[in-house]
Write a structure and sequence with these properties.
Blueprint lengths: L16 E2 L3 E2 L8 H4 L4 H7 L3 E12 L8 H7 L3 H4 L4 E15 L3 E4 L1 H4 L4 E5 L5 E10 L4 E6 L22 E6 L7 E12 L10 E4 L11 E4 L4 E8 L10 E5 H14 L9 E5 L2 H7 L7 E6 L4 H5 L6 E5 L2 E2 L3 H9 L6 E8 L2 E8 L12 E2 L9 E6 L1 H7 L7 E7 L14 E5 L2 E2 L3 H8 L6 E7 L2 E7 L2
Antiparallel strand pairs: 1-2, 3-4, 3-6, 4-5, 5-8, 6-7, 7-8, 9-10, 9-12, 10-11, 11-14, 12-13, 13-14, 15-16, 16-17, 17-18, 17-19, 19-20, 21-22, 22-23, 23-24, 24-25, 24-26, 26-27
Length: about 475
């Protein structure tokens, strides 16, 4: 008979084994712990640090659903509310979960839980309620940090653990507030690690679990059977909104980096590499002499970037960062994003079949050149568009790669001349066969007399050529 030690115990059906697999006489259990596998001690310790989050947001509601009808809007236009009275205000309420990670009342949750909230209320398991303020939110990682107000004394909290020590098959618990029914604990195992194909956020390397996660669990805790906080639950895979045994959590390693950065700077600041690359395919792996298609092959390096100064070149294969293997481009971005700004990181690379290690400086993306956001007007194709110089810092905010100076379209006024030709996110490459490297270049070229205009744009990575008449 196997006696339970702590929580991780497996009963052997109360059989004694003698020799090589010979079953002896069954023994009747003499204590409750010999019969029951329980997570109660871990839950009692961890659950008080997991909170419910209620948010309120005031929105402008239309006077009648009829205004949403496309047939109605065809005759009265999109601005129907101005024709039939001012829209009324409506309060939207939502709920989610969070985890207290500092005893003074610092809470980590998901960006999508609190990102647009006007009021935030945090409710503890003992029913105490606190108003909370948003310290900072990071849409790209889907994480947000709250500070509870008027906290007296210390609160229960959970330390962020090392999610790199988690293995597939480990027992885990998900704690949160699904569907608003109240705090709920579910159990399961780690089904997979480093899921990079799930389009939940820009930095993808999720812990997958079959512990039941449902709407309202977002921002709650994923803990191991010994009570370590290894992830923040963020999403599920579902066709109807219900749990089907495929849930995803943001690893604690990423959470810790974002938390530290937001508490320090009010926003998430991540290292800028200054290089882009492509995944290694099977055919490419063979040509490079690789045993398997793992790693990222560098295809562009920005001049003066940390990658360039470290000696990375086009054609190099990035195989690991700080000793952690790199499987694809998403995993490379994730691993860099979990490193704090400052210092250097060792990057294992392969060049012409020779392995080498480069030291890459972990620097914040610079605001160089200055953005120079400009609203364009007049009789020219970009009239009504707001543009800016794309620098590394702006590219990071927009989730874009920065390789060379260029001009990006930020906004386009509806119904303007620009709305016919350009969209937010377009990169303006050329005007009348002249390269556009800065807002200054665009302003000069846009004022020149031309009939017609020849435009070359980069839209979603594809070159788009337009001829525009006056």
């Amino acid at each position: 008979m196997t006696r339970c030690v702590g929580l991780v115990c497996v009963l052997s059906a109360w059989f004694l084994t003698v020799g090589a697999g010979v079953a002896a006489e069954a023994v009747v259990p003499v204590s409750r712990e010999q019969v029951t596998l329980t997570f109660a001690p871990v839950v009692k310790k961890s659950a008080p640090a997991v909170v419910n989050i209620y948010t309120r947001r005031v929105v402008q509601a239309q006077n009648t659903p009829l205004f949403n009808d496309p047939f109605f809007r065809r005759f009265f236009g999109d601005d129907v509310n101005s024709l039939f009275g001012m829209p009324r205000e409506q309060v939207q309420n939502s709920l989610g979960s969070g985890v207290i990670v500092r005893s003074e009342g610092i809470v980590i949750t998901n960006h999508h839980v609190v990102g647009d909230a006007d009021e935030i209320t945090v409710v503890l398991t003992d029913r105490r309620e606190f108003e909370a303020e948003l310290v900072g939110s990071d849409e790209r990682s889907d994480l947000a940090v709250l500070r509870m107000k008027d906290v007296e004394g210390t609160l229960p909290f959970l330390d962020l653990s090392d999610s790199e020590s988690v293995e597939v098959g480990d027992m885990v618990l998900a704690i949160g507030n699904p569907f608003g029914v109240g705090q709920t604990v579910t159990s399961g195992i780690v089904s997979a690690l480093a899921r990079t194909t799930v389009g939940i956020s820009d930095y993808r390397s999720f812990i997958q679990t079959d512990a039941a996660i449902n709407p309202g669990n977002s921002g709650g805790a994923l803990i191991t059977s010994d009570g370590r906080l290894v992830g923040i639950n963020t999403a599920i895979y579902s066709k109807d909104g219900g749990n089907v045994g495929i849930g995803f959590a943001i690893p604690a390693t990423m959470v810790r980096t974002v938390l530290t950065s937001i508490l320090k700077d009010g926003r998430a600041v991540r290292p800028w590499l200054g290089a882009s690359g492509k995944n290694i395919t099977s055919d490419l792996a063979k040509s490079l002499g690789l045993a398997r298609p793992m790693g990222v092959i560098v295809d562009r390096v920005a001049a003066g970037s940390p990658a360039a100064r470290a000696g990375l070149s086009v054609g190099d294969v990035i195989q690991d960062v700080e000793g952690r293997p790199v499987g694809d481009t998403e995993e490379l971005r994730y691993q860099l994003a979990t490193l704090p700004v400052g210092g250097k990181a060792k990057m294992g690379t392969l060049r012409n079949g020779i392995k080498r290690v480069v030291n890459v400086a972990l620097e914040a993306p610079p605001e160089t050149p200055a953005r120079r956001e400009t609203q364009l007007e007049g009789r020219q194709p970009f009239s009504g568009a707001k543009v800016a110089n794309l620098n590394p810092a702006l590219a990071e905010e927009l989730g874009r790669e920065y390789i060379e100076p260029s001009v990006i379209v930020l906004e386009v006024v509806r119904g303007s001349i620009a709305a016919r030709f350009v969209r937010p996110g377009d990169i303006i490459w050329e005007v009348n066969d002249e390269s556009v490297k800065s807002v200054g270049d665009l302003l000069r070229l846009a004022t020149e007399e031309s009939a017609p205009w020849a435009l070359t744009l980069n839209r979603n990575g594809q070159a788009l050529q337009l001829q525009v008449g006056r």
